[in-house]
Amino acid sequence: DQKEQVTPRRLSGGQHVVQLDTEGTYQCSLTGLIFEVTEAVKITYSLLSWSKYANLVEKPWIVGGPLFDVRCDSARALTSIQFPHSLCLSG
């Protein structure tokens, strides 16, 4: 279960982008997101605020982790995303 660590390039608006050049499993060094891809792909992602979406979560469910917006230039190449259950934003 080898994951190559990748450090994203930061864009405006809190977005991050990684260009993955070949098939494999990659882990973002900043967020812990894990991407499994079958070919070269560019993935753009950002951390969203639950304040805008919290009213959509109905009891007994509760907000339990970070919320991400993930976009990929080739949806067929991105076979899985593993999301962290927690995220430390203190540095």
From TrEMBL:
- GO biological process, alphabetically ordered: innate immune response
**What are its GO cellular component terms?**
cytosol
**Domain (FIIND) ranges:** 1-91
Pfam families registered for this protein in UniProt: FIIND (PF13553)
Chief location: cytoplasm
Keyword annotations for this protein?
Answer: Cytoplasm, Immunity, Innate immunity
Places the protein is found: Cytoplasm, Cytosol
Asked whether the UniProt record includes Cytoplasm among its keywords, one would answer yes
Q: What is this protein called?
A: CARD8 protein
